[in-house]
Amino acid sequence: MFKELVVNVTEQETRVALLEDGNIAELFVERGDDTNINGNIYKGRVQRVLPGMQAAFVDIGLNQAAFIYVDDVQKKQNIGENEPPISENGNKEFAPDNTGRQIPIEELLREGQELMVQVVKSPIGTKGARITTYISLPGRYLVLMPNVDHIGISKRIACETERTRLRDLISDKRDVPYGYIFRTAGEGIAAEQLNREMELLVNSWENIKKRYRSFSAPYRLHRDLTVTFRAIRDLLTHEADRLTIDNRFGYDSVNNFIRKIMPELKVKVEFYDRPEPIFETFNLEGDISRALKKKVWLKSGGYIVVEQTEALTSIDVNTGRYVGKHNFEETIFKTNLEAIREIAVQVRLRNIGGIIILDFIDMESVENRDKVFEMLKEAFKEDKCRTNILPMSDIGLVQMTRKRVRKSLTRMLCEECPICYGDGYTISRSSIAQKIYREIHRHARDMMGDIFTLKASEEMADYLHREEVNTISAIEYRLGKKIEIYPIRRFHREEFELTEKFK
């Protein structure tokens, strides 16, 4: 599969699109705010300890306090002390003491205490950032874990001989018992490359410790790479050989970054200087707009509907205009198969996380249900986010989870509708009109004046004048009162004001 990165840089925003065989697979957006701080390291101060939740709120200098669970708190907070919290079998031993007792958070943290933390999940909606005291510094080939005496290797490196070579290589090279994890890109790494990466990571950690001792909380000690450099570090694998960027300074920075940090990376970096916007040239704007809509059409005429809530996303599959050629079961089966490819694309592109419920069209054939389920698992193999897919139920439902570490594309690029305030619907004009009539009748009993003055939104005023003129006339005749309607531009659709006056 041919992969490439397309980078659009402006003063206010940077967008990085990962293309697979010319189709957009993932989109990363970075702006000059705190919407994506995943990986940043802070010196924080404990604000409040919550024994009932076994969690604590920590001030790291953001508008919202970050929160930390007891399992993410080390027993010792002495910076530079190597406290190995991983057992020989790889299981985390977060909070038990020597007697095996689980240490409650009120014995680990106290209000006002300063500690070094790292963001593992950026703020999403009303939730603050989630943090941990287990620091990790990712590089191109390795992840440094300065407080863990453990060597791990990516599961995607399947060759046992290579795994043994890597484990022996890191054991011979490390002078301090820091922990390391080999990333997938580390497969086949040479000793010289390993030395350079280890030196860079250890130097970064030493600088972080110095800043921790020099500044008081809250303070940002380390900022993860920008979205462009993170994409180079994490997304450009051996088969990717091109990066196109439309900013001259960014082009020079990318070349310097590759030359200094990963000179062995054979990537063709191109500077895009045409007048047409780069995302337009690569036909990406239409795909991005499509990813913000609820309904996504399939080529056959079927469609999927994506509905996102705060903690759960439902994706519904429908045949739409597709009527098939042979029989109903085949039509449903083909629609479900086509929907799988689009679902995998949309989930990755929209960066949907948390619980996802897939509602496929019900199939009578058990064999077809099994094929759909296997193809679904296959479709998500390219997804770098951890997913867990449960078997399909008898009524065609599939439950799955996907790790969420940053905002979805919808939450990043959209905001609450000023008309419905996020409900997704508004009260109909006829319902608002009926509400107005009830108010008129209620006030008519105590009314001293001769005329009702009704102020309403421009839309509702036009609706009453055009569609409800007969009803208004009937009310005027029944009550013996005249009703004057005035459009107010600043009024919300559902807003109106009823007063009285004399002739």
Task: Explain what this protein looks like in three dimensions.
The chain is an alpha+beta fold. Helix content is 30%, strand content 26%. It contains 13 helices and 24 strands. Strands 4, 5, 6, 7, 8 and 13 form a six-stranded antiparallel β-sheet that branches. It has a six-stranded mixed β-sheet with strand order 16-17-18-19-21-20, covered by helices on one side. The radius of gyration is 29 Å and the shape is globular.
Oligomer classification: single chain
CATH architecture of the largest domain: Beta Barrel
Radius of gyration, CA atoms, in whole angstroms: 29 Å
Inertia-based shape: globular
Give the helix level as a range of percent: 25-40%
- Would you tell me the structural class of the helices and strands? alpha+beta
Number of helices: 13
Count of domains: 4
For the record, give the distance between the C-alpha atoms at the N and C termini, rounded to a whole number: 79 Å
Summarize the biggest pleated sheet.
6 strands, antiparallel
CATH class of the largest domain: Mainly Beta
Low-confidence stretches: 80-96
Tell me the name of the CATH homologous superfamily of the largest domain: Nucleic acid-binding proteins
% residues in beta strands: 25-35%
Mean pLDDT: 84
Q: Give a count of the beta strands, DSSP E runs of length 2 or more.
A: 24
Q: What is the CATH fold-level name of the largest domain?
A: OB fold (Dihydrolipoamide Acetyltransferase, E2P)
InterPro entries: NA-bd_OB-fold, RNA-bd_AU-1/RNase_E/G, RNase_E/G, RNase_E_G_thioredoxin-like, S1_domain
Domain S1 motif: 39-140
Region (Disordered): 79-98
Cofactor: Mg(2+)
